[in-house]
Amino acid sequence: MSADFAVVGGGIVGCALAAFLAEGGARVVVHEREAIAAGASGRNSGVVQDPLDPALTGLYEESLEHYRTLEGFDFPADPVGLLLVGEQPFEHPGTELIEDPHRLEPALAPGLFARRIDTGRPVPPAAAAHAWAERARRAGATFRIGEDGPTDGPRVIAAGPWARDLLPLPITPIWGVVVEFELPDAPTHVLEEAGIDALTSDAVPETLFSAVTARGISAIGSTFEPAKPDPEAKAPSIVAHAARFLPGLDRHPMRGLRACARPGSADGRPMLGRIDDEVYVAGGHGAWGITLGPASARLVADLMLGRPAEIPPALDVGRFTSSPSR
C-alpha cells in the first residue's frame, strides 16, 4: 500500500496517531521494530493520572475522554485516589496535609504524612496501546512489525526514547525498574512519594517510591536513571526504599520485574508538532505516555491532516527547533 503517512513507533502514542490519522481518511502504515507496546507503553506502572503540571492538564483531561470511548479497553469509571506520601510534612497546592495516613490507607506505615488528590486510574500496562492498535486496524491502518521505518516521505516520529536516533531533539532515555508483588493487603490508593512533580522538570530524582495495584498485582517502583540498569540487581534497593512506606513488603516474594526506557525531554514535557514539511514528532512524554498519549496523538494527527490544531507553546517542538508548528 502507498501510504499518505508513515508512523514510526508502535507504542501508545504511535498507535493512537495511526487511529486518528486513519479515521481522518489517510492511508497509514505503522513501522515498529519490535512489537506493539514493546517499550515503556507495555512496561510502565500502569496508571492514568493527573501529571501535576498545569501545562499538561488539558492533555490529561482530553485523554480521559478518549479512554472512556476506547473500544476493548477496560477503563475505570472513577479514580481510586492518589496519595502523595512523605516521611516529613510537605506542601502541595490545593491539598490538605494528612497526618498519619495509615488510618486512610492501612497498607502504609504509621507516622507518615500525605496529601490526597482525586486522580489515579490503574490499568494493565500494555492494554491501552493494544486497544489503540486495534482501533487503527479497524480504520484501515497497516502495521509492519520488525521494521525501522522510512527515512523520507511524510512521517511522524513516535519512537519513544529512540526518537533521538532519528531527530536532532533533546529526547533521552530515562530507565525505570518496577517490581511486581501479589500482596494480601494491597494498597487501594495509588501511592507516590512526595516529589513526583519533579518528573516534569529537569531535576528528576534517581528513585521515587510508587505503588499501583491493578487486577491484584501491585507494581512497586521506580527508578529514573540515564543508563540501562540490571533489573535483578536494582530490585533489592527499590524494595528496601518502598518498605519504608509499605512495612513488611520485603517479606513477600517478588512476582516479577520489568524495566523500560521512558522518553525524557529537556524540560520534562512532551514535544509535539512539525519539524519540517515532511516530518512530525510526538515524543518526550517521560513517565506520562499512557496519561497524555491519546490527546497528544490527536493534536499532531489534526496538524498532519490540515485541520486546525492549537498546540500550546509549552508543548510545541518549536521550543527546541525555533520553528513553531502551524
Helix and strand layout, with pairings?
Elements: E1 5-8, H1 12-23, E2 28-32, H2 40-43, E3 47-48, H3 57-68, E4 82-86, E5 98-99, E6 113-117, E7 121-122, H4 127-138, E8 142-145, E9 155-157, E10 171-181, E11 190-193, E12 207-214, E13 217-223, H5 231-243, E14 256-265, E15 271-274, E16 279-283, H6 289-304, H7 318-321
Parallel strand pairs: 1-2, 1-9, 2-8, 4-11, 9-16
Antiparallel strand pairs: 3-7, 4-6, 5-6, 10-13, 10-14, 11-12, 12-13, 15-16
Helix pairs in contact: 1-4, 1-6, 3-6
Short description:
Keywords: Oxidoreductase. This protein is an alpha/beta fold and 326 residues long.
Structure description:
- The structure is a single chain.
- With 326 residues, this protein is α/β, with parallel strands linked by helices.
- It folds into 2 domains: 5-74 and 123-169 and 266-321, FAD/NAD(P)-binding domain, CATH 3.50.50; 82-119 and 172-264, D-Amino Acid Oxidase, subunit A, domain 2 (D-Amino Acid Oxidase, Chain A, domain 2).
- Helix content is 22%, strand content 25%.
- The protein contains 7 helices and 16 strands.
- The chain has helices at residues 12-23, 40-43, 57-68, 127-138, 231-243, 289-304, 318-321; strands at residues 5-8, 28-32, 47-48, 82-86, 98-99, 113-117, 121-122, 142-145, 155-157, 171-181, 190-193, 207-214, 217-223, 256-265, 271-274, 279-283.
- The strands form 3 sheets. The chain has an 8-stranded mixed sheet with strand order 5-6-4-11-12-13-10-14, covered by helices on one side. Strands 8-2-1-9-16-15 form a 6-stranded mixed sheet, covered by helices on one side. It has a two-stranded antiparallel ribbon with strand order 3-7.
- Helix 1 runs parallel beside helix 4, helix 1 (12-23) packs parallel to helix 6 (289-304) and helix 3 packs across helix 6.
- The protein is globular.
- The two termini are 29 Å apart.
- Residues 4-303 form the FAD dependent oxidoreductase domain.
- One of its GO terms (cellular component) is cytoplasm.
- Keywords: Oxidoreductase.
- One of its GO terms (molecular function) is oxidoreductase activity.
- This is Glycine/D-amino acid oxidase-like deaminating enzyme.
